[in-house]
Amino acid sequence: MTFEELRAxxxxxxxxxxxxxxxxxxxxxxxxxxxxxxxQWQKLKVPSPxxxxxxxxxxxxxxxxxxxxxxxxxxxxxxxPDYTEAVKxxxxxxxxxxxxxxxxxxxxxAKGTGVxxxxxxxxxxxxxxxxxxxxxxxxxxxxxxxxxxxxVKDFIEAGRWYRKxxxxxxKKAQSNLKILEARINQxxxxxxxxxxxxxxxxxxxxxxxxxxxxxxxxxIFRFAKNIFxxxxxxxxxxxxxxxxxxxxxxxxxxxxxxxFGFWRP
Length: 265
Hints:
By secondary structure, the protein is mostly helical. The chain has helices at 3-10, 17-33, 38-44, 53-62, 65-76, 83-94, 99-111, 119-131, 135-147, 155-167, 171-185, 215-254. Among the domains are: 133-212; 219-265, no CATH class. Helix content is 65%, strand content 0%.
């Protein structure tokens, strides 16, 4: 692909996660192979600050969330990148409901790129993107719930978001969903205990949800299993000893010329 074709692709809408990752990989590979394209790429992306940069920012600010997202996108993948400026424009677009900007802002908070690392804030922006149908954000939110990253660890919620992403064809979400469902199906049924003494909102209910065994239950189970096998081993040794004694007795009892006080006819 020529640089001109790449330039055209760079100006397209990057809402699809797979598309944006693919084209930025192409960009990086091309720049690595041909450093002379650096100046051209700088012109395509965000130029160095100059007398017109403030005016350009004002125009982007008026352009709506999509223009702001593309502006942030260029800063994010610039050579060298300016993550702080990218976060600024991602946030502006995200606050207007741009799902891809929300996803990128979540990624910036997750990695501490251009902003202080904050897993809770990251999960908040991933959730906003996921609620708008962003399959990558849905997968990440499911993963966060499965492992308790920035959110409460909750297999049921993890499965819900994995399923949404899987239904859109996200391969990793499909794989993780199968593994998660297998783990849940091998565990005891979910126990829900609610205090219904007075009407309450769902968030006010005292609820206990158990997925699998608790650590205390696992410890008791391991202890009981060890005792069982030790007792079984002792019983086995006793039985083997009795059998050996019986065999010795029979041999000595019927051997000619031996008399150990046993009665023989």
